[in-house]
Predict the 3D structure of the following.
Amino acid sequence: MAKEKDEKLNYRQELQKLKAEGPRTLYLLWGKEDYLREQYLAQLKALCIPEGESGFNYKRIDGPELTANALRQAIDALPFLADHTFVELRDIDLNKLKEAQEITAILSDLPTYCTVCFVQNAEYEPDGRLKLIRAIREKGCDLKFTQQGQGALIDWIARRFAAHGKRIDFEASQRLIFISGDLMNRLIPEIDKIAHFVKDEKVTVKDVEAVAHHIPEAQVFELTDLLAQKQISAAMNTLSELLAENEYDPIFLLAVLGSQMRRLYCARLAIEHDLSASYV
Protein backbone atom coordinates (compact mmCIF):
# COMPACT_ATOMS: atom_id res chain seq x y z
CA MET A 1 0.00 0.00 0.00
CA ALA A 2 1.29 3.44 -0.87
CA LYS A 3 2.50 5.45 2.09
CA GLU A 4 0.83 8.76 2.87
CA LYS A 5 2.76 11.84 3.88
CA ASP A 6 2.31 12.40 7.60
CA GLU A 7 1.52 16.11 7.40
CA LYS A 8 -0.48 17.94 10.05
CA LEU A 9 -3.94 18.98 8.88
CA ASN A 10 -4.70 22.65 9.48
CA TYR A 11 -8.21 22.03 10.73
CA ARG A 12 -9.16 25.66 11.24
CA GLN A 13 -8.00 26.54 7.72
CA GLU A 14 -10.00 23.67 6.19
CA LEU A 15 -13.10 24.74 8.12
CA GLN A 16 -12.73 28.32 6.93
CA LYS A 17 -12.27 27.10 3.37
CA LEU A 18 -15.44 25.00 3.61
CA LYS A 19 -17.50 27.95 4.85
CA ALA A 20 -16.04 30.34 2.26
CA GLU A 21 -16.24 28.09 -0.81
CA GLY A 22 -19.20 25.91 0.13
CA PRO A 23 -19.45 22.11 -0.07
CA ARG A 24 -17.97 20.10 -2.90
CA THR A 25 -19.62 17.06 -4.45
CA LEU A 26 -17.20 14.41 -3.14
CA TYR A 27 -15.27 13.92 0.11
CA LEU A 28 -13.03 11.30 1.69
CA LEU A 29 -12.65 11.86 5.44
CA TRP A 30 -10.17 9.62 7.26
CA GLY A 31 -7.34 9.65 9.79
CA LYS A 32 -6.71 8.94 13.46
CA GLU A 33 -8.14 12.22 14.77
CA ASP A 34 -11.76 11.05 14.66
CA TYR A 35 -13.05 13.85 16.90
CA LEU A 36 -12.10 16.53 14.36
CA ARG A 37 -13.34 14.30 11.55
CA GLU A 38 -16.81 14.17 13.11
CA GLN A 39 -16.76 17.91 13.84
CA TYR A 40 -15.93 18.64 10.20
CA LEU A 41 -18.61 16.21 9.04
CA ALA A 42 -21.20 18.01 11.19
CA GLN A 43 -20.26 21.35 9.62
CA LEU A 44 -20.44 19.83 6.14
CA LYS A 45 -23.89 18.39 6.82
CA ALA A 46 -25.11 21.69 8.23
CA LEU A 47 -24.25 23.39 4.94
CA CYS A 48 -25.70 20.65 2.71
CA ILE A 49 -28.81 19.66 4.66
CA PRO A 50 -29.69 22.36 7.22
CA GLU A 51 -32.92 20.49 7.92
CA GLY A 52 -30.86 17.67 9.43
CA GLU A 53 -30.60 13.92 8.96
CA SER A 54 -34.30 13.27 9.52
CA GLY A 55 -35.30 14.80 6.17
CA PHE A 56 -35.67 13.17 2.77
CA ASN A 57 -32.43 14.68 1.52
CA TYR A 58 -30.13 12.57 3.69
CA LYS A 59 -29.07 9.03 2.80
CA ARG A 60 -26.65 6.78 4.66
CA ILE A 61 -25.05 3.50 3.63
CA ASP A 62 -22.90 1.53 6.08
CA GLY A 63 -20.05 -0.70 4.98
CA PRO A 64 -17.96 -2.61 4.50
CA GLU A 65 -19.74 -3.51 1.23
CA LEU A 66 -21.11 -0.98 -1.26
CA THR A 67 -22.91 -1.81 -4.49
CA ALA A 68 -23.04 0.41 -7.53
CA ASN A 69 -26.83 0.14 -7.62
CA ALA A 70 -27.27 1.28 -4.00
CA LEU A 71 -24.93 4.21 -4.57
CA ARG A 72 -26.65 5.23 -7.81
CA GLN A 73 -30.10 5.17 -6.19
CA ALA A 74 -28.93 7.35 -3.29
CA ILE A 75 -27.31 9.88 -5.62
CA ASP A 76 -30.18 10.01 -8.13
CA ALA A 77 -32.74 10.97 -5.47
CA LEU A 78 -33.59 14.62 -6.22
CA PRO A 79 -33.65 17.24 -3.45
CA PHE A 80 -37.06 17.58 -1.76
CA LEU A 81 -38.01 21.17 -0.90
CA ALA A 82 -34.29 22.01 -0.75
CA ASP A 83 -31.28 22.67 -2.96
CA HIS A 84 -29.02 19.86 -1.84
CA THR A 85 -28.81 16.19 -0.89
CA PHE A 86 -26.19 14.44 1.21
CA VAL A 87 -25.05 10.81 0.92
CA GLU A 88 -22.97 9.53 3.83
CA LEU A 89 -20.99 6.33 3.25
CA ARG A 90 -19.65 4.89 6.52
CA ASP A 91 -16.68 2.52 6.84
CA ILE A 92 -16.80 1.34 3.24
CA ASP A 93 -13.81 -0.85 2.42
CA LEU A 94 -12.67 1.20 -0.56
CA ASN A 95 -9.60 -0.97 -1.04
CA LYS A 96 -11.65 -4.15 -1.69
CA LEU A 97 -14.83 -3.12 -3.50
CA LYS A 98 -16.21 -5.76 -5.87
CA GLU A 99 -17.76 -3.18 -8.21
CA ALA A 100 -14.94 -0.65 -7.99
CA GLN A 101 -14.98 0.14 -11.72
CA GLU A 102 -18.72 0.93 -11.79
CA ILE A 103 -18.52 2.94 -8.57
CA THR A 104 -15.55 4.92 -9.91
CA ALA A 105 -17.59 5.82 -12.99
CA ILE A 106 -20.51 7.00 -10.85
CA LEU A 107 -18.29 9.16 -8.63
CA SER A 108 -16.63 10.71 -11.67
CA ASP A 109 -19.91 12.28 -12.79
CA LEU A 110 -21.83 13.47 -9.73
CA PRO A 111 -24.74 15.91 -10.02
CA THR A 112 -24.14 19.37 -8.55
CA TYR A 113 -27.04 19.03 -6.11
CA CYS A 114 -25.50 16.03 -4.31
CA THR A 115 -22.56 15.70 -1.93
CA VAL A 116 -21.15 12.20 -1.40
CA CYS A 117 -18.99 11.76 1.68
CA PHE A 118 -16.93 8.68 2.55
CA VAL A 119 -16.33 8.59 6.32
CA GLN A 120 -13.66 6.08 7.32
CA ASN A 121 -12.65 4.75 10.73
CA ALA A 122 -9.40 5.73 12.44
CA GLU A 123 -7.55 2.62 11.23
CA TYR A 124 -8.30 3.11 7.54
CA GLU A 125 -5.48 3.86 5.10
CA PRO A 126 -6.33 4.60 1.45
CA ASP A 127 -4.38 2.76 -1.23
CA GLY A 128 -3.34 5.54 -3.58
CA ARG A 129 -2.57 3.04 -6.36
CA LEU A 130 -6.25 2.23 -6.87
CA LYS A 131 -8.21 3.99 -9.64
CA LEU A 132 -11.09 4.59 -7.23
CA ILE A 133 -8.89 6.43 -4.73
CA ARG A 134 -7.22 8.42 -7.49
CA ALA A 135 -10.65 9.39 -8.85
CA ILE A 136 -11.84 10.55 -5.42
CA ARG A 137 -8.73 12.67 -5.01
CA GLU A 138 -9.02 14.11 -8.51
CA LYS A 139 -12.74 14.90 -8.40
CA GLY A 140 -13.19 15.59 -4.70
CA CYS A 141 -11.62 16.55 -1.40
CA ASP A 142 -9.36 14.09 0.43
CA LEU A 143 -8.88 15.07 4.09
CA LYS A 144 -6.67 13.13 6.48
CA PHE A 145 -7.48 14.17 10.04
CA THR A 146 -4.23 14.04 11.98
CA GLN A 147 -3.33 14.79 15.57
CA GLN A 148 -3.00 18.53 16.02
CA GLY A 149 0.20 20.34 16.85
CA GLN A 150 1.00 21.00 20.50
CA GLY A 151 0.05 24.69 20.36
CA ALA A 152 -3.40 24.05 18.90
CA LEU A 153 -3.96 21.10 21.24
CA ILE A 154 -3.01 23.07 24.36
CA ASP A 155 -5.37 25.90 23.37
CA TRP A 156 -8.16 23.35 22.86
CA ILE A 157 -7.47 21.72 26.25
CA ALA A 158 -7.65 25.14 27.92
CA ARG A 159 -11.05 25.80 26.28
CA ARG A 160 -12.38 22.40 27.39
CA PHE A 161 -11.36 23.09 30.98
CA ALA A 162 -12.77 26.61 30.79
CA ALA A 163 -16.14 25.10 29.89
CA HIS A 164 -15.96 23.34 33.28
CA GLY A 165 -15.06 26.58 35.03
CA LYS A 166 -11.42 25.51 35.42
CA ARG A 167 -8.09 26.79 34.17
CA ILE A 168 -5.00 24.71 33.45
CA ASP A 169 -1.45 25.95 33.06
CA PHE A 170 0.91 25.14 30.21
CA GLU A 171 2.94 22.54 32.12
CA ALA A 172 -0.16 20.65 33.24
CA SER A 173 -1.50 20.62 29.67
CA GLN A 174 1.81 19.25 28.40
CA ARG A 175 1.75 16.54 31.05
CA LEU A 176 -1.81 15.57 30.15
CA ILE A 177 -0.85 15.17 26.49
CA PHE A 178 2.18 13.08 27.43
CA ILE A 179 0.22 10.83 29.82
CA SER A 180 -3.02 10.38 27.89
CA GLY A 181 -1.96 10.94 24.27
CA ASP A 182 -2.73 13.60 21.68
CA LEU A 183 -6.03 12.30 20.32
CA MET A 184 -8.95 14.52 21.28
CA ASN A 185 -11.51 11.75 21.81
CA ARG A 186 -9.07 10.14 24.22
CA LEU A 187 -8.46 13.43 26.04
CA ILE A 188 -12.11 14.47 26.47
CA PRO A 189 -13.01 11.87 29.16
CA GLU A 190 -9.71 12.59 30.95
CA ILE A 191 -10.46 16.32 30.98
CA ASP A 192 -13.96 15.64 32.32
CA LYS A 193 -12.57 13.36 35.07
CA ILE A 194 -9.95 15.86 36.15
CA ALA A 195 -12.42 18.77 36.13
CA HIS A 196 -14.79 16.86 38.42
CA PHE A 197 -11.94 15.71 40.65
CA VAL A 198 -10.29 19.10 41.19
CA LYS A 199 -12.02 21.29 43.76
CA ASP A 200 -9.95 24.42 43.11
CA GLU A 201 -10.24 26.54 40.00
CA LYS A 202 -6.69 25.77 38.84
CA VAL A 203 -5.65 22.35 37.51
CA THR A 204 -2.05 21.42 38.32
CA VAL A 205 0.43 18.82 37.12
CA LYS A 206 -0.20 16.95 40.37
CA ASP A 207 -3.93 16.76 39.59
CA VAL A 208 -3.21 15.41 36.12
CA GLU A 209 -0.83 12.79 37.49
CA ALA A 210 -3.39 11.67 40.07
CA VAL A 211 -6.42 11.28 37.80
CA ALA A 212 -5.51 10.96 34.10
CA HIS A 213 -5.26 7.55 32.48
CA HIS A 214 -1.70 6.66 31.46
CA ILE A 215 -1.53 5.24 27.95
CA PRO A 216 0.99 2.39 27.54
CA GLU A 217 3.35 4.54 25.46
CA ALA A 218 3.67 7.01 28.35
CA GLN A 219 4.23 4.25 30.90
CA VAL A 220 6.82 2.55 28.70
CA PHE A 221 8.56 5.88 28.17
CA GLU A 222 8.82 6.27 31.96
CA LEU A 223 10.11 2.68 32.14
CA THR A 224 12.74 3.52 29.50
CA ASP A 225 13.74 6.60 31.47
CA LEU A 226 14.22 4.50 34.60
CA LEU A 227 16.37 1.99 32.67
CA ALA A 228 18.46 4.80 31.21
CA GLN A 229 19.04 6.08 34.75
CA LYS A 230 19.94 2.51 35.83
CA GLN A 231 17.12 2.46 38.38
CA ILE A 232 16.53 -1.24 37.76
CA SER A 233 14.39 -1.89 40.84
CA ALA A 234 12.01 0.96 40.04
CA ALA A 235 11.89 -0.13 36.39
CA MET A 236 10.98 -3.69 37.39
CA ASN A 237 8.21 -2.37 39.64
CA THR A 238 6.79 -0.32 36.76
CA LEU A 239 6.98 -3.33 34.43
CA SER A 240 5.24 -5.53 37.03
CA GLU A 241 2.43 -3.00 37.35
CA LEU A 242 1.96 -2.93 33.58
CA LEU A 243 1.84 -6.72 33.31
CA ALA A 244 -0.48 -7.01 36.33
CA GLU A 245 -3.10 -4.86 34.61
CA ASN A 246 -3.62 -7.61 32.00
CA GLU A 247 -4.54 -4.87 29.56
CA TYR A 248 -1.38 -4.87 27.50
CA ASP A 249 0.16 -7.76 25.62
CA PRO A 250 3.81 -8.37 26.64
CA ILE A 251 4.86 -8.46 22.97
CA PHE A 252 3.25 -5.03 22.44
CA LEU A 253 5.05 -3.63 25.49
CA LEU A 254 8.34 -5.06 24.24
CA ALA A 255 7.79 -3.45 20.82
CA VAL A 256 7.08 -0.03 22.35
CA LEU A 257 10.07 -0.37 24.67
CA GLY A 258 12.31 -1.28 21.73
CA SER A 259 11.03 1.73 19.80
CA GLN A 260 11.86 4.06 22.69
CA MET A 261 15.32 2.52 23.03
CA ARG A 262 15.99 3.11 19.32
CA ARG A 263 14.95 6.74 19.71
CA LEU A 264 17.34 7.17 22.63
CA TYR A 265 20.12 5.61 20.58
CA CYS A 266 19.37 7.93 17.65
CA ALA A 267 19.39 10.91 20.00
CA ARG A 268 22.76 9.82 21.34
CA LEU A 269 24.19 9.50 17.82
CA ALA A 270 22.80 12.91 16.91
CA ILE A 271 24.57 14.47 19.91
CA GLU A 272 27.86 12.70 19.24
CA HIS A 273 27.93 13.54 15.51
CA ASP A 274 26.34 17.01 15.74
CA LEU A 275 23.32 16.00 13.65
CA SER A 276 20.07 17.96 13.37
CA ALA A 277 16.84 17.09 15.19
CA SER A 278 15.38 15.74 11.94
CA TYR A 279 17.79 12.78 12.21
CA VAL A 280 16.02 11.65 15.38
